Amino acid sequence: MPMFPKVLIANRGEIACRIIRACRALGIRAVAVHSTADADAMHVALADEAVCIGPAPAHESYLDAAALIRAARETGAAAIHPGYGFLAESSGFAAQVAEAGLAWIGPAPETIAAMGDKSRARAIAAEVGVPVLPGSPAVDPGDPAGLAAAAEAVGYPLLVKAASGGGGIGMRVVETPERLAEVVGATASMAAKSFGDGTVFLERYVGRARHVEVQVFGWGDGHAVHLGDRDCSLQRRFQKVVEEAPAPDLPEATRQRIRETAVALAASVRYAGAGTVEFVYDVESGEAFFLEMNTRIQVEHPVTEMVTGVDLVGWQIRQAAGMLPPVAQEEIRLAGHAVEVRLCAERPEKNFLPAPGSIATLDWPEPAEGLRVDTGVRAGDAISPHYDSLVAKVIVQGPDRAAALARLAAALDRVEIGGIATNLAFLRRVVDAPELVEARMTTGSLLEIRERERAAERGAA
């Protein structure tokens, strides 16, 4: 099968720019899509062609499947790469792409559907021996007795989770029975609006937990490999802020088990392309449990690329074109340590509230070995209130973790951005925080760091 001559990128911002670079390295023409708000965006300027697909609201542009497929047909694109977010994990969109005679750069629609339904994914994981947290089937917000029974079986504290979607949307902690019905109802409503599916279920909440994950890659025929693991524990609102590879201070038996079971899961569903199997690691018990599988490229994929030397996006495109020969597990080698931070337009002092606006000045560190900045904006561009507040990802690699963190600190010291509020100064302080330096972070650590700062600010006032 020949390589795709032209690929349409059904996304925007940083990930669209990243995919354009991969296309260029493969000699493929890249087609960008954009809303009216993004007419002058960086990904539009970088692409070989660009098509306006609608007004600023995402549901009228980047979430308009018909407009995206129409743009691909009009430009002669042979394939569509969804990136992450928007329609990246929509089995319906993937099926529409195939029905239109276009190649989908990602797993098969039925795989997306199976793993995108979190309840179903838990059952599949359990079948292949992946340990899962206690949880419930789908619950009915209108059945108080059924809710109470399901919650009692799972145990408090628990998480109310949307069966569809991702990015932390639709996840709420419930500590006591009194708030259960209210939270289940609110989560179901949010899930219906965000994902078109109001199905929710309950899952045991681990108070002192780390978020670890395994990068997998499959060929769609039952053969799959892993490319190591990552730690993504430093989060706010269940959304990752700092990610690193490999996961530090993880017992080797646990590391081996999550890698092996992640590959077994990918192989069992005949996974095609890049995917991530996510786990919660209970700090108290030392056990790791399956959370979910993300059927797309992850925001944090660069740290895996840095330690493996693999172009994961390039692999995605080549695999979808039938031009990536199978790779054996022993061919994947990891070297050194990599860390990534997400620089966002937000106000940490105001509970990380997004802070859209125009970027007046922007200066990145000079290019250097072991340093990478992935961005989708330039000086003069705007961070729109219609989309994610990500400005850039600053990624570093070092021969070991200490060297990587030192390199990250130096890189952040050289970033200059003006005109908008960002989390840059907070990220710089996080790099020096004992929770990160000593690798004892949990999913609650970022908020604990911020609360410590608030206490210091109150004491100094």
UniProtKB/TrEMBL annotation:
Family matches, as InterPro entries: ATP-grasp, BC-like_N, Biotin_carboxylase_complex, Biotin_carboxylation_dom, Biotin_COase_C, CPAse_ATP-bd, PreATP-grasp_dom_sf, Rudment_hybrid_motif
Pfam families: Biotin_carb_C, Biotin_carb_N, CPSase_L_D2
SMART domains given in the database record: Biotin_carb_C
The keyword ATP-binding is annotated on this UniProt entry: yes
Coiled-coil annotated spans: none
Occurrences of domain ATP-grasp (ranges): 122-321
Domain of life: Bacteria
Keyword terms, alphabetized: ATP-binding, Biotin, Ligase, Nucleotide-binding
All residue ranges annotated as the Biotin carboxylation domain in the record: 3-451
Signal peptide: none
Name of the protein in its database record: Acetyl-CoA carboxylase biotin carboxylase subunit
Organism: Paralimibaculum aggregatum
